[in-house]
Design brief:
Layout lengths: L3 E11 L1 H16 L6 E7 L3 E4 L5 H4 L2 H6 L3 E4 L7 E3 L2 E9 L9 H18 L5 E2 L5 H8 L15 E3 L2 E2 L1 E8 L2 E9 L4 H5 L7 H14 L13 H16 L1 E5 L4 H15 L2 H4 L3
Parallel strand pairs: 1-2, 1-12, 3-4
Antiparallel strand pairs: 2-6, 3-5, 6-11, 7-8, 8-9, 10-11
Helix pairs in contact: 1-9, 4-8
Length: about 280
């Protein structure tokens, strides 16, 4: 039986606003029936702190530190906590809620999409597994996260290796379409990461940073070879094809589509009213 074809978009390194605008436009185009489902890979120029849609910027983020590290700053259309996009590959998946492969519940749809990630880690030779909270208290903690840092703890069906989180993802559903995107950590500067958030005291910061090291891990801490973006991208392209039982066809945006993305980037994601809205 012939496999379903999804689009594959490799955007390379783009501005924070462009990255979020393109994910949003892909969702809109798919909802309108203009394109099939999409797998997208991208990077960030400059390195960027992205905020969850509901995150309170002045309460949780040290804006002076963001400037000091010369980082970009953008608010995502998806929920979740802060993510430092630097030494990583970012992915997004855009697919209809009504797609036959997609279960009705958010958690189970998350599991299906994350199967592509699982297969990608396996292609890199890593023994990755799904995170499934084992106790009621752990499940309750996911509803009330204590940290503003995304990789602080694994959520339902996120990927872990030796008990530590190795990929962080977020999802939104709009106009009948699922958008799930996330960070695949290749390397990590945890000192810089923890410099970007506010804490009650320096002691609390150090305690949280030490705990973080036990909960999250970049790929290059787990492999003998030093991984670079091209190798990781190839592995996860293979992973999504295998995990979702699809074939991917490379796609390039038309000039009209590029203009739509650039216009949205300027009007929304570069707009301080959007970024500082909470």
């Amino acid at each position: 039986m012939e496999k379903e074809t999804w689009l594959l978009i490799d955007s390379g390194a783009c501005s924070p606003a462009y990255n979020m605008a393109l994910d949003e436009r892909l969702l809109h185009w798919h909802s309108s029936g203009l394109i099939p489902p999409v797998i997208r890979f991208y990077e960030w120029q400059p390195a960027t702190l992205s905020l969850g849609y509901f995150q309170k910027i002045h309460k949780e983020i040290d804006l002076e530190a963001v400037k000091r590290h010369e980082l970009g700053l953008v608010r995502r259309p998806t929920g979740g906590r802060g993510v430092l996009h630097d030494q990583e590959l970012t992915y997004s998946v855009i697919v209809s809620e009504e797609h036959p492969k997609m279960p009705a519940t958010v958690t189970e749809a998350y599991r299906v999409i994350s199967t592509g990630l699982l297969e990608g880690f396996k292609a890199l030779g890593m023994d990755a597994r799904f995170s499934i909270p084992s106790s009621e208290s752990a499940r309750e903690e996911l509803k009330q996260p204590r940290s503003a840092v995304c990789f602080d703890a694994p959520s339902w069906y996120e990927l872990v290796v030796e008990g530590r989180k190795i990929a962080g993802s977020a999802q939104t559903r709009q106009n009948g379409v699922i958008l799930q995107h996330g960070a695949l950590m290749i390397d990590l500067d945890s000192e810089q990461l923890f410099d970007l958030f506010q804490y009650p005291s320096e002691r609390v910061r150090r305690r949280m940073q030490a705990a973080f090291a036990k909960k999250a891990v970049p790929m290059n801490d787990l492999t003998a070879e030093k991984l670079e973006v091209p190798r990781v991208r190839a592995a996860f392209t293979e992973g999504f094809e295998r995990g979702l039982d699809i074939q991917l066809s490379t796609y390039t945006l038309t000039p009209a589509q590029e203009k739509e993305v650039e216009d949205l980037a300027k009007t929304r994601y570069e707009n301080e009213e959007w970024t500082y809205r909470r």
